[in-house]
Amino acid sequence: MNAPVNVVDFDVAQHVTSSWRHRLAAILGSVRFQLLAALIIGIGTPLWIRQQFEYVSDDNFSYETTLIGCAVAVLFGYLIYRKVTSLPGTSALLNQLPGFVVSYLAVLSLFVALRLDFSRKQLVLSFLLVTAFFFVLTYVLSRVRRPVYGLVSGGRTSVLTRIGYVDWVRFSTPAEAERAPHIPLVADFHYAGLTAEWERYLAEAAISGRRVFNAKQLKESIEGQVAIDHLSENSFGHLAPDSIYAPAKFYVDFALAFVAAVLLSPLLLLVALLIRIESRGPALFRQPRMGHRGKPFTVYKFRSMRVQAEAERDVTQDMTQSDDARITRIGKIIRKTRIDELPQIFNILRGEMSWIGPRPETIALSSWYERQLPFYRYRHIVRPGITGWAQIKQGHVTSVDDVREKLEYDFYYVRNFSVWLDVLIVMQTIRVMITGHGAK
């Protein structure tokens, strides 16, 4: 069998990594260049334009306050940009805008709340220039840069070569790896055939500051899935998620749910009325689901299907199929836009759910999955959510064959439980609501 085209030997890689594309990508992708350019464009350029064209910004504004606000917005937005786009399966081109929208709105809200004088025009101009810069930057980088990793042959490293959007360089000896110190190394640390020479070199490379990855963890990071071969520890070395972020998330969830319940009450009442008009039965669908720490609870959703007699049901019908005949006309709309999930706001207020987490399964399906798949109950270690990592990556599960893949996404979320992963999920959920991707 021929090797994949994205796997090259070291002598070929020397030419590839020394090309102008690689050098340009290294410059454009550096944190120092991006941050310095963003600060110059976001602070200096609006100031220069104002001085050149002498436009009237706003009456009675504080010049210093505006500059400080722009600087804070650029720094905060860049932090979100770097954190979110470093997560697997994300596009910097698509996700750079939401990060800067959040940062500039946060600065604007702070100015308004504190009643500070500032130039609205300069703040808006700074936002437009910075987002335009990062849009162009990420577009250029997507054309000239591909991730490059050096493979130490043996063990799980062969599985990585199936990932087509990454270039892999094979190193036969530590001497070859030493001649390309800029390429991160990947090895299977549990491979029995890994020689003592390679082990010593990998340890020395890590000490000197070179990036060295375990093949299993790198695959998880690139694909956003955790292979189900054993219970997976998180980065803190234990099975529980981040003990600092979890309590804070609970209170943020409650506050946002309370505000959402007040603001969305007219929409909730309208949808409930339309459901009752179209078909017989209650507007709300209530169903026992498996929740946090394996405790059952009753989930609330807008009913999107015709009422079905209990005798007609079986366990496979708990998984909605594409073009399911049971879905009503209103149901198709609210399912595609995820409006059917909004009543779960009240589950959040009761502490049973979160905005973001693994989707809660029915009691019957959960029991079935536990019999079919090892460690299924591990997903209950965090609160279930209205949206989650598996939902944006995979969409609705329509067969038991999809469950293992979904569980791998759920395990990845638990292992990498963080505010940045939640921010990315929120961004992607908005895209799903607009495009209808993943709806059944």
Report on the structure:
- With 440 residues, this protein is an alpha/beta fold.
- It folds into three domains: 7-13 and 146-223, Rossmann fold (3-Layer(aba) Sandwich); 30-144, no CATH class; 245-307 and 316-435, no CATH class.
- It has 18 helices and nine strands.
- The protein has helices at residues 10-17, 20-28, 31-53, 63-85, 92-114, 120-144, 157-160, 174-178, 196-207, 215-223, 245-263, 265-278, 329-336, 345-349, 363-372, 389-394, 403-415, 419-435; strands spanning 7-9, 148-152, 167-171, 185-187, 212-214, 284-290, 296-302, 354-356, 385-387.
- Strands 1-3-2-4-5 form a five-stranded parallel beta sheet. Strands 6-7 form a two-stranded antiparallel sheet.
- Strand 4 (185-187), helix 9 and strand 5 form a beta-alpha-beta unit.
- Helix 3 (31-53) crosses helix 6 and helix 4 runs antiparallel to helix 5.
- The longest helix has 25 residues, at 120-144.
- 30% of the residues are buried.
- Residues 1-5 have low confidence and may be disordered.
Topology:
Layout: E1 7-9, H1 10-17, H2 20-28, H3 31-53, H4 63-85, H5 92-114, H6 120-144, E2 148-152, H7 157-160, E3 167-171, H8 174-178, E4 185-187, H9 196-207, E5 212-214, H10 215-223, H11 245-263, H12 265-278, E6 284-290, E7 296-302, H13 329-336, H14 345-349, E8 354-356, H15 363-372, E9 385-387, H16 389-394, H17 403-415, H18 419-435
Parallel strand pairs: 1-3, 2-3, 2-4, 4-5, 8-9
Antiparallel strand pairs: 6-7
Helix pairs in contact: 3-4, 3-6, 4-5, 4-6, 4-18, 5-6
